[in-house]
Amino acid sequence: MKKRVFLVCAGVFVMISAKGFAEPVQWDLFDPQHQFALSEGAPCPDGEKAVVLHSATASPTQYAVTQTALSTDALQNKVLRLRAQLSVQDVQAGAGLWLTLYDGTKQIGFRNTQKDLVHGQSVTRRQEMVVWVPPQATRVVYGVMLRGPGTVTACGLHVGPVLPAGEQNSDQSVAVQTMAFAINAMRTQALHASLIDWESRTPPLLELARVGSADDLYAEIRTLLADLHDGHSFVMPPDTVRKLAAQPEQMPVFTKISPDIGSISLPFLMFHSAEGMKEFSRTGQQIFAQAADMRGWIVDLRHDRGGNMWPMVQALRPLLGSVDLGFFEDRAGKRSAPWRAVAQGVVPQDDGPDLSRVPVAVLLGPQTASAGEAVAIALKGRPNTRFFGTATHGQTSGNKSFTLPDGGRLAVAAEFELDRTGKRYEGPVQPDVVEVDPDAAERAAEVWLRQG
Fold first, then answer.
1. What angle do CA 270, 272, 275 make, to 5 degrees?
2. pTM (2 decimals)?
3. 211/191 Cα distance (integer angstroms)
4. I need a labelling partner for 115 at 20 to 30 A (CA). Which of 145, 230, 444, 449 fits?
5. Is residue 346 included in any domain, yes or no?
6. Residue 34 pLDDT level (bands cut at 50, 70, 90)
7. CA distance 37 to 64
8. 3-state class of 377 per DSSP?
9. What is the spatial distance between Cα 403 and Cα 178, in angstroms, rounded to a whole number?
10. Residue pLDDT, tens place only, 274-308
11. Each residue of 62-87: pLDDT tens digit?
């Protein structure tokens, strides 16, 4: 259902007429479940009419939004601020702001205040967010959102460009330092850094970091990473870093398939202590030491979503041996030292079994990603090795990881990955034998090992 309300809104800066009066703003109601009503409220303290969204019948999961469109002419590559004072009555689910950017009919950006909704019996709070407007943007659509029953009244619902800071610009704030650090890391390290016009894009992003919230900051860093088009770079805010670091570490798991065939399953290893990494590699090597008489092995990488590749290849050292396993290559074509299944600076132990010629079947799937794919690449070219399952996720690049000034974590795809033969991988690792069904892939791997 759509309902239209016309308000005179002097706060919509970019719609001021030549005579100094505001153009009428047309507010539409988007109400998929037909449970909400849009109306004008009493004048706000600034003299504008309030925007009121109400429902007495909506369930907690139902929602509606007010929406209006604005041309982004003269706003491209600038920082846009959306703000309002929201007053809620008997709202339990929450109310907030939202904004979408379009290039013609194509949506190219979306933001909302979902993480900080206003709710309660009688609560008034100011909300705002800032967003960088891409050069290709043609219009912005924005408004107020209400989820569940209750009433939200919006006063001072303004959208407009953030004015540049004067001499008092606090370039030393942690947020500005974080944005500057992230931009520099991407510009100097990213494989596809040349896709971004850094000279024109950097100033507005630093300005956004100065005036925006932490959510605004990380949303724009994610947008910047997406524009690198590598499918692998990512960023995590400090609270996510802390939560992941607190999760228990998973270890490799051994399964005895038959009296002479064993299976080792490698989990992902996203966050880890130094002792945790050592324990991961020790656990894998102990599995092989305790089952050294197996005539064939299955290496299951189907749930290895990534993290740190080095403990993973070290866990497989009895199968991989001491040979070169692969290489990284930067965007200038410079190769790294070869990968080895030995921790840097650690003297290899000679008391483990040498299984480097034992037949190995490797199981792959769409959840095999990032470091898990690097392990698969390290196994490519190994004698008596065959791959079963389906193509991997496709994050076959080496990430460089950085701790941001505010405690967040940035990972930038900075290197290509090459196997021991020198083949570069730019996409999924493909199996030798395609088996979509996981059980069928395991059976095919076991049959091959018995034949080998």
1. 150
2. 0.82
3. 30
4. 230
5. no
6. very high
7. 9
8. helix
9. 10
10. 888 889 999 999 999 999 889 999 999 999 999 99
11. 999 999 999 999 899 999 999 999 99
CB 450 within 8 A of CB 403: no
Q: Report the CATH number at residue 291.
A: 3.90.226.10
Note down the domain range covering 29.
Answer: 4-161
pLDDT at 18 over 50: no
223 and 137 fall within a common domain = no
Is the predicted pLDDT of residue 352 greater than 80, yes or no?
Answer: no
Q: Are strands 4-8 and 433-434 parallel, antiparallel or unpaired?
A: unpaired
Q: Measure the CA–CA gap between 202 and 162, rounded to whole angstroms.
A: 15
The span from the CA of 360 to the CA of 102, in Å, is 51
Q: How many CA atoms lie less than 13 Å away from 147 in the CB half-sphere? A: 16
CB 117 within 8 A of CB 31: no
In a domain, 360, yes or no: yes
* Spatial distance between the Cα atoms of 183 and 117, rounded to a whole number of angstroms: 30
Number of domains into which the chain is organized: 3
How long, in residues, is the chain? 452
Report how far residue 7's alpha carbon sits from residue 50's, in angstroms, rounded to the nearest whole number: 9
- Residue 115 domain-assigned? yes
All residues at 6 or more sequence positions from 149 whose CB lies less than 8 Å from its CB, including other chains: 55, 56, 57, 58, 59, 60, 90, 91, 92, 93
Residues 394 and 373 occupy one common structural domain: yes
- What pLDDT sits at residue 8? 39
Mean pLDDT score of the chain: 90
Count of C-beta atoms within a 10 Å radius of residue 441: 25
Q: pLDDT tens for residues 111-153?
A: 999 999 999 999 999 999 999 999 999 999 999 999 999 999 9
DSSP assignment string, 277-312: HHHHHHHHHHHHHHTTT-SEEEEE-TT---B-HHHH
With respect to residue 166, please indicate whether it lies within any of the assigned structural domains: no
Q: What is the mean pLDDT of residues 46-67?
A: 93
Q: Which of the listed residues 183, 203, 229 is the one where a domain comes to its end?
A: 229
Task: Return the structure tokens found at 91.
Answer: 């709202």
Give the list of residues 6+ apart from residue 341 with CB closer than 8 angstroms, or none: 313, 314, 316, 317, 320, 321, 322, 325, 378
d(CA 28, CA 6): 9
Alpha-carbon span 180 to 197, nearest angstrom: 15
Is the pLDDT at 252 greater than 70, yes or no?
A: yes
Query: Which amino acid belongs to residue 240?
Result: T
Return the sign of the alpha-carbon dihedral for residues 100, 222, 335, 405: positive
User: What token pair was written down for 8?
Assistant: 């005179």
